[in-house]
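Lecture notes, unit on protein representations.

Consider one protein chain, 190 amino acids long.
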Amino acid sequence: MTSANPVRVLGIGGSLRDGSQSERALRIALDAAAERGVQTELIPGPELVLPFYDTAAAERTERAVRLIEAVRGADGVIVVSPGYHGALSGLVKNALDYVEDLREDARPYLDGRAVGLAAVAYGWQAAVTTLEQLRTITHALRGWATPLGGSINSAETKFDEGGGASDEKSVGTLRLIGQQVADHALLRSR
């Protein structure tokens, strides 16, 4: 890694609520990636308020352009979604749909990038099914889902403002996800 070409890991996710449980989970994973020496960037839920993705529309909002360019420049990505009614949030799904704008790139979609995934939901069923959907979307976008993904039951685990959580196992899982993304990105940059 050189200062001219820093390795970058992008975090996408959270909900519309600033400091949501899923955003706090994402921050833990991103912090662990940063400890590996990569640059990190966060696009949290409130910044993912975008028009519904439309392949026929040529114009993109300023936020959409920022998201697309951040994904384009990322060497790794971490996505954390809340689980709503057994599925990922529409906010996160719509943001991932914008990755379609990278289809003509030399490195299309999420090709060659490690993608760390976690789902935070009130109950195990929604957390597990949301994680599975995130994995399916990642594979469809040609990303490499990290071996470890996180299903976190927010009925049992509460994240705090200080970067921790009531369950150390959840923190450990999120940290390992961040480390796996950073390590993969660093290896590919050599």
